[in-house]
Amino acid sequence: MKLFTFATSPYARKARMALDFKGIPYDPIERCYSLDRKHDLLSASPRAEVPALVLDDGRTIADSTIICEYLEDAFPDPPLRPADPYERARMRQIEDLCDRAFDAVSYGYWIAAARKDVPEAGAMTAAARAEFTLLLEKLDRQLDGRDFFCGSVSIADLAAICYVPAAGAMGIDIALMPQLKAWAARMNKIAAVREDRKRLVAALSKVHDITSELEGPDGKVHWRDSRLEWPVRRGFIDFVAREFRGGKMMFPPEGV
Ligand SMILES: N[C@@H](CCC(=O)N[C@@H](CS)C(=O)NCC(=O)O)C(=O)O
């Protein structure tokens, strides 16, 4: 198998941790379409997004949630999905909260850092920090005395570990969320999570400028669904309009 992946992408990290947790061998291929414009990714991911999985016979699967569902069906041991149907639904809700809300809010935070000279930058940073804190509190409550979100380690935990440690970089102290803090320490004992952390730290050590981490060679930044909803919902519509009119937005291709 091959996995199109990118070391700092939370979606790619989730899928890669699932492969590692299950002990499935794969070749990682580092790609980020908005930054490198390499077309091979498009053959596996019509939206030009990572992660995308290429099976040994050449068939492809795009989207982290769909990849993780496939891995669970094809390689059920060790499981990353609870047996109980309600817990399974909770797992999907927590994964969705991470993929949609956590991702959009943190994207807003980093976009504000990359566009630090725009008039909205300070307000965007503050809005993202406040909303990220609310989301962390929500996760803390979801633990409700459990070691992991759904009892044993599941995709919900792999999705969440891609966001919770970012609190520190955003100036948020999770000391007031003791369940979440203990959960993060527990997660760091899992080999697949530790490997992910090493890859992330190595990749971040090479990032000297957040703008070039987000902006492609033509100055465009990748935007889509919930990432676009966030600044509009938070009232930063003029910022969005200026980016759009200035040709600074890159969207997934049409018809996907
Ligand atoms: N729904 C997708 C979202 C994937 C996604 O947005 N990936 C980002 C990286 S975090 C990407 O590839 N963006 C395209 C780009 O920046 O060129 C999934 O769950 O896999």
Describe this structure in words.
Helix 1 (10-22) runs parallel beside helix 3, helix 4 runs antiparallel to helix 5 (121-143) and helix 5 (121-143) packs across helix 8. With 256 residues, the chain is an alpha/beta fold. The chain has a domain at 2-74: Glutaredoxin (3-Layer(aba) Sandwich). The longest helix has 30 residues, at 85-114. It is built from twelve helices and six strands. Residues 6, 9-11, 32-34, 48-51, 63-65, 99, 222 line the site of glutathione.
How would you summarize the topology of this molecule?
Elements: E1 2-5, H1 10-22, E2 27-30, H2 33-36, E3 52-54, E4 60-62, H3 64-74, H4 85-114, H5 121-143, H6 155-160, H7 166-169, H8 178-187, H9 191-205, H10 210-214, E5 221-222, H11 225-233, H12 237-245, E6 249-250
Parallel strand pairs: 1-2, 5-6
Antiparallel strand pairs: 1-3, 3-4
Helix pairs in contact: 1-3, 1-9, 4-5, 4-11, 5-8
- As residue ranges, the low-confidence spans are none
Q: What structural category arises from helix and sheet content?
A: alpha/beta
Helix content: 40-55%
Mean of all residue-level pLDDT scores: 97
- The name CATH uses for the topology of the domain at 2-74 is Glutaredoxin
Structure summary, number of beta strands: 6
Helix-strand topology string: EHEHEEHHHHHHHHEHHE
